[in-house]
UniProtKB/TrEMBL annotation:
It is found in: Cytoplasm; Endoplasmic reticulum; Nucleus; Peroxisome. One of its GO terms (molecular function) is hydrolase activity. InterPro entries: Cu_polyphenol_OxRdtase, Cu_polyphenol_OxRdtase_sf, Cytotoxic_necrot_fac-like_cat. Interacts with FASN. Interacts with SDHA. Interacts with ATF6, EIF2AK3 and ERN1. This is Purine nucleoside phosphorylase LACC1. Keywords: Acetylation, Cytoplasm, Endoplasmic reticulum, Hydrolase, Immunity, Inflammatory response, Innate immunity, Metal-binding, Nucleus, Peroxisome, Phosphoprotein, Transferase, Zinc.
Amino acid sequence: MVEAVLIDLFSLPANSQNNMQGLLHNTLEAIEKHSSIHAPCVYVMCCQRQGSERKGEQEFLLPALRSFQSLNRKLEVVCAQTTAAALYTIKQRLDEKDLSIIKVIVPTLRKHLMKVYIDHLFTAVYQFEFEDLQVASDCENLQISEHQNEGQTLPSQDVALIQSEIQMYLESLPSLKGELTILRSSLIPGDIFLHGFTTRTGGISYIPTLSSCNLFSSSKRRDPQVVVKENLRRLANAAGFNPEAFHRVKVDHANAVCIMGKTEPHSYDGIVTNQKGVTLAAPGADCIPVLFADPVRRACGAAHSGWKGTLLGVSMATVNAMVSEYGCNVKDILVVLGPSVGPCCYKLPHESAKEFHRIDPKCVRQFDSASPYIDIRRATRILLERGGILPENIQDDSVTDQNQNITFCTACHPDKFYSHFRDGTNFGTQIGFISIKD
């Protein structure tokens, strides 16, 4: 069942207040008579004319709305100077109410345009139905009709203009939740490598569990790729790397490693390079983002290590790739474990806990319980040391100086980090990143 209706009056002429009022009234009346549409919320999208105040535009549209106040619907007029701004504002209203099924009533000539905006600003979480709003040239007569001209597509130059409009609008938005903050390790030499671990502040993502510097988009979350791209642009500006030379692992919760410059695997949880200016990144929202740096051979790597990847040895697989590809000596490689869920919070079923117990009994707390607490950091450190990494070349939560520690528990610090364990399926993602300076 449709949960919301969006009426696109953005491009229609408003030669007079009465003209726009009449048009809106007729549109709502047509919707009311159209039995296939039933929704609790109706959003009317209008263009804010240059020199006019948004409040003033809403006020002169109110007479057209008053006769519909008795309906079991909430009507809201959204005025903005661009379609991107208006539609993104409506997206925020939908997300506040957790609405996902939307009927879009749009002038016939605007439908394909609107679909491009929606494709960029929304994800597969949302379902859209489209109906054509045919408006006569005098803007007095209208009718709603089903799905016309389905085969048409916009020219590529029009799509590029829409993308540019969206990007400019997102760049204009203020940062949320405070300044963008990057955690850095003193173990990795700053004269050779650029690196850091992100926190959740300083981006534009507004959904509570994703706010504000979410750095991953998927079909199951409400943050679109364009928002994540803007968050990444802001991070790149703050950190000093090129977002166009940014490579994030394609998570599979396994132990495959990608060698930059060679054929890219379909999925992988580790990535290594010796190319300057290329930024490698691993996500984490409980799983460990692990960074690797060899200041002697000037090579680096990043790995995503969840409980499955830890057991499969993804960190040592990344080390081994650096050794085999770039001639690194395992004793020269520095390893830093980023923010991740700690043994204070993380539980696994007993069968899975047995695997960690085999690595070292100290990796499991309350082993006899149905869901023991697991220390994936300790397990990672043990496996790295067994592989030849020097203990003093690993930084994790065993560091006692809290000014130096960067391996905080993500679940314990909701103000600083995202956590799948804590926030559920619509969770945000932070990253660890590293590159070799030019």
